[in-house]
Amino acid sequence: MTTPEAKKERRLPVGTMILALLVVIFLGVAVNRFANGLGAVSNMSDGRAWGLWIPFDLFCGVPLAAGGFTMAAIVYIFNNKKYLPLARPAILTAFIGYLLVVFALLVDLGQPWHIFRMIWNPNIHSPLYEVGWCVMLYNVVLALEFAPAIFEKLRELHLPAPTWKIPLRTLHMIEIPLIIAGIVISTGHQNSLGSMLLLMGNDLNQLWYTPILPLLFFLHAVCVGPAMVIIEATVSSKVFGHKLDIGIFSGLGKILCIPLVIYLLFKVGDIVVAGEVGALFSGFPANAWWWAEMIIGVVLPLIMFLLPVVQKSRGWLFVSALLVVLGLILNRFNVTLMNLEMRPGYGTYFPTWMEIAVSVGLFSGGMIVIMLANKFLPVMKHDEGHGESHKEKPTEAPASA
What we know:
Layout lengths: L3 H7 L3 H23 L16 H12 L2 H11 L6 H26 L7 H4 L6 H30 L4 H13 L1 H24 L14 H28 L5 H28 L12 H20 L2 H4 L2 H25 L14 H24 L25
Helix pairs in contact: 2-15, 3-5, 3-14, 4-5, 4-9, 4-10, 5-7, 5-10, 5-15, 7-8, 7-9, 9-10, 10-11, 10-14, 11-12, 11-14, 12-14
């Protein structure tokens, strides 16, 4: 006889069912888009060709998946094995994130059968050409970097040795070249996203338009990579019970301070050199958006990560990392939507519920895949050796965390 406890275990969690429902809604909207065109689901027009999808799914999605190459650099290039437990989860999240970027572009651009057309019909003068190649190649690199988890699972299932032993050995042999390739490729397309906006000229507000925009995009991605890893690891420890010492989180926070300071210096220095300091105190609301982006996403988390009370609290570390992510989202919306001139005569733009449903549905699908991977694959295979430290007692997390 089946016990009530067994029945309860077989039920899907409410959160998973909600995520699945959001994915189903996304699929319905996607069918409508491909059947009836972009105008059937979007408020985009000739005056606003970039709607919600480009700022959020592409310009935010790519840097939010930067945890893969940043953690790979920290662990394997700088040989800081303390953070090894976070490397594979970061690679998984980056892989899912980049796949979602591809799916979002397919919905936005249409005609998915042309996605590989750039291979035989290249436009070498376009930054998008480099972005396309980098995203395609980086997805291959991420798939190979995460593949050992699959073969390790096959080994656990006691399948015949050739099924897992040869490919696993091969992947371990090329691990470092793959990591180097991933870092180089990621650097290239993080820069190229900024290069695309250099083509906007006077359409982009003076507070953001700068020749060093590609460098700023790369530096901001380096900042948000460790921040996303802190967020993912915190959520993962709650949902999946992974045990990680708080020193790993606080250490990442200290590392994160370095690119935050460099980004702040370049950002402010560029404004000073360009003679745009006066624009920071005039030209509302653009100047308000600039201050919000810098205070919320750079200055405030930089101060918080350096405070001892924050370094001892998982909750405050989570909040500090979340502020870095919010700052990046603000920055990307500033340069691609809110402070990018709209062609006169087309009114204002606000996304339809279907545009929002596409982004939310894609994110929900990614969450489901990550949950399944954590359940069935050795994603956090090293966490058993990194349990809670008994020497320190974390302070209470804030209620909001």
